[in-house]
Amino acid sequence: MRDDGASGLGVGAAGMLARALGLSLLVALTTATTQRAVAQDVGLDAGPIEAPENAERPAAPATADEWRFRVGLGVGLRPDYMGSDDYEAVPIPQLTAYKGPQYVNLTGTYLFSNVIPSPNWRLGPTAKFIRGDRCNANDSRVNDMKCQANALMLGATGGYAFVVPGIGVPQARLTPALEMVGDVAGANDGYTIEPQLNFAQRLSDSWRLGLRGFGTWGSGNYNGYYFGVNAVQSRDSGLSQHNANSGFYQTGLLSVVDYDITEHWKLSLIGRYTRMVDDAKDSPIVDGKDARGSANQFFGGTVVSYGW
C-alpha cells in the first residue's frame, strides 16, 4: 500500500530535493576554479551500496587547476531484490572526475559528488537508479507480485570532515554526513533520509581503508512500494498482506579497501552488510518464512580502475 500518511509530503519533498540538486549544480559551475589542492574524499558505490569517503591520492603531483580522471570496471554479487536471499552477479562500471576536494563519481547506478572547495565541508548532488527487480527475481511468488517501475532518486549529500588520529597513523578523517533523495520518476513516489558516519585513512603508501556506518529511513510510499504487499499483490502471489509504514528500514556497515597496483592502476575491494529492521524485516518477502527472503543482506564486489 503506497501511503505516506501524507502523500503530498512525499511529492513535495521530492520537489525540494530536485531544486536542491539544481542549486548544487549551479554552485559547481560557479566554483570551477578551486583553491589549493587537498586530499579528496572518494569512495565506491554500485546500486545497493553507498560509499564511505576514501582519501584519493593523485598518481602524480597535480596543481589546483588540474582535473584528474579515473575509469574502471568490476563485478559484484547482490540480492536479486531488496530483502532477497537469492543473489545475482552485476557489472560495476566506474567514472570519476576530480580537482582538489571537488569531484563527481558515477559508479554502477549511483552518482555522488562534492562541489564545495573546502578541505572539510562536503555538499553535492546525489542520484540513484533503482531497478524494478521483482519480475526478475528467482522466487516465483515474488515474481507474481508483478514488475515494479524503475525509480530515479535525486537529492544531495552533505557533511563535515574532522581530522582524527588514525589506526597506526597520525591522521584519518571522520565525517558525519546526511543523504536525502526523493523519487522523480513516479515509481515509488517516496524519499529516504540516511545519516552516515564515515571513516577513511591510509594504511600504507599503497593501501587505503574506508568504512561507513549508516541507517536508512524511508517514507511510507517508499517502504510500502518495496516491502508492502497490498490486496491485489496478495491475491496474485498468495503472500499475506503487509503494510510497511514510514520508518527506518535498514542499518548496516560498508567497507572499501583500495590497493594501488601501479602508479595508475588501482584495485578496490567492496563489502557491505545490511540488516533489515522493523516493517521491512517483517515483510513476507523478507522474513525468511517458506525459505523466502532474509533480513541479512550482503554485497561483495571488486573494481579495477585506471587513473590519469
- DSSP helix fraction: 10-25%
The CATH topology turns out to be Outer membrane phospholipase (ompla), Chain C
Beta fraction of the residues? 35-45%
**Number of DSSP-assigned strands:** 15
Largest sheet: 12 strands, antiparallel, barrel
**Strands ordered across the widest β-sheet:** 3-4-5-6-7-8-10-11-12-13-14-15
Number of helix segments? 5
Structural class: alpha+beta
The second-level CATH architecture is Beta Barrel
Report on this model:
By secondary structure, the protein is α+β, with helices and mostly antiparallel strands. The chain has one domain: Outer membrane phospholipase (ompla), Chain C, CATH 2.40.230. Helices cover 15% and strands 44% of the residues. It contains 5 helices and 15 strands. The strands form 2 sheets. It has a 12-stranded antiparallel beta barrel with strand order 3-4-5-6-7-8-10-11-12-13-14-15. It has a two-stranded antiparallel sheet with strand order 1-2. A hairpin with a 7-residue loop joins strand 10 and strand 11. It starts with 6 loop residues before the first helix and ends with a strand. The N terminus is likely disordered.
